[in-house]
TrEMBL record:
Residues 278-320 form the PG-1098 ferredoxin-like domain. Residues 321-391 form the THUMP-like domain. It comes from Flavobacterium swingsii. InterPro entries: PG_1098_Fer, SAM-dependent_MTases_sf, Thump-like. It comes from the Bacteria. Signal peptide: none annotated. SUPFAM superfamilies: S-adenosyl-L-methionine-dependent methyltransferases. Gene3D superfamilies: Methyltransferase PG1098, N-terminal domain, Vaccinia Virus protein VP39. This is Uncharacterized protein. It holds the Pfam family PG_1098_Fer.
Length: 392
């Protein structure tokens, strides 16, 4: 099938229809009857998805794509590049190779990379693509990854694992023990083949739950793009029993926002105040880390409330998150809302507030958008408060 899809006419047709409506296109007659129509549609759909997420793949001719969902689930080039900077050495084995984006970037930092993939068709696609991408130091191995480990029977500088979060019996899963492979169960076996293991997990995985399932965790990376957490990365080192470092990073259009700390370094913060001139909302990676009091201490900011996770100051500072100037704030009640927000247009965020954004919009007839930003929250006196702000 790969050979048929690589014909000049088929590749031109795919490129010409990148922006086409797939549902409408599917109703048309297949111009290449020797190839199943669904295969061509899959290429168009997946390549379209790769345009922003995988520009290197998109830019090369004769790249073959798996299903659209495989492209959706793979690492972006930005997160793959970040991971590649975490590893070094002579060799790495990826036990859950998938579409191979991570391995392509690993291959730029390490001498030899082994790409293991259970799915035969996907393994063949990836092997073909690595040839197109001139990634000559990656070896594709098809089959069960643990059996491959035993067959190779050698020591690796790194093992990389991105466990499948789809179960035939449970559907979509998030606990590591429910993923494939079952890393917690196999961890001691993996240590026979490498002292260092890097694991990628779903962003929804609770950090405490992950720590309960894993051992010898050295560093946890929380990686966000444009304020959306995309990956949790767990660096595990054999016999490591010391402190655990949390590294947060948010890639946005302007800069990289970083904030690191040692787990369990959290302090008791009693530094609360009423809103001042500026308000600060941490990025999603920091919020995922749970370092709410450390943020206050590190940046010398005061919090509005123990559970609101909004910070304030009279002097503006450089901060890893969104920064706003407070134009007005008032107690949340009918009279104040009628005076300032009813029938207006505003962006709404809730933090430690009993009502949802949807309910607030409906109740007070506030349309979405515009340059006004509002925070519905709770202040230090446990008073429900509304902040009307302008974004800095």
């Amino acid at each position: 099938m790969i050979t048929a899809l690589l014909s000049v006419a088929v590749q031109e047709f795919i490129s010409q229809n990148i922006d086409a409506n797939i549902s409408k296109l599917a109703l048309q007659k297949n111009p290449f009857p020797e190839i199943p129509w669904v295969e061509i549609l899959t290429q168009i759909s997946a390549k379209s998805k790769a345009k922003e997420k995988l520009p290197t793949w998109y830019a090369h001719e004769k790249i073959i794509y798996p299903s659209k969902i495989s492209v959706e689930q793979t690492s972006s080039e930005k997160t793959a590049l970040y991971k590649s900077n975490l590893i070094s050495g002579k060799n790495l084995i990826d036990l859950t190779g998938g579409f191979g984006v991570d391995d392509y970037y690993f291959s730029k930092k390490i001498n030899q990379v082994f790409h293991c993939e259970l799915n035969k068709e996907l393994s063949e696609i990836v092997k073909h693509n690595f040839e197109i991408l001139n990634a000559k130091n990656i070896t594709c191995l098809q089959g069960d990854s643990f059996e491959t480990l035993k067959k190779l029977n050698q020591k690796f500088d790194w093992i990389y694992i991105d466990p499948s979060r789809r179960s035939n019996t449970k559907g979509k899963v998030f606990m590591l023990k429910d993923c494939l492979p079952n890393v917690p169960e196999l961890l001691e076996d993996y240590f026979q083949f490498s002292d260092k293991i890097l694991i990628k997990t779903a962003p929804i995985l609770d950090i405490t739950s992950g720590l309960n399932e894993l051992q010898n965790v050295k560093t946890i990376h929380i990686v966000a793009i444009n304020n959306e957490v995309k990956e949790l990365l767990w660096e595990i080192e054999k016999n490591h029993e010391d402190s655990i470092t949390i590294k947060t990073i948010n890639f946005n259009k302007e800069k990289e926002e970083k904030f690191d700390f040692i787990l369990n370094q959290e302090i008791e913060n009693k530094n609360y105040t009423l809103p001042k001139k500026y308000i600060y909302e941490p990025n999603s990676a920091i919020l995922k880390s749970g370092a709410f009091e450390l943020v206050s201490n590190h940046f010398k900011l005061e919090k509005l409330h123990q559970h609101s996770h909004l910070y304030t100051s009279d002097e503006i500072i450089d901060f890893p998150g969104r920064v706003f100037k407070i134009e007005n704030y008032f107690e949340y009640n009918k009279n104040e809302m009628k005076e300032f927000l009813v029938n207006t247009k505003a962006n709404i965020t809730t933090r430690n507030f009993p009502e949802t954004v949807e309910n607030i919009r409906k109740k007070w007839r506030i349309s979405d958008g515009g340059n006004t930003y509002t925070f519905f929250t709770t202040d230090m006196n446990n008073c429900k408060t509304v902040l009307i702000c302008a974004k800095i």
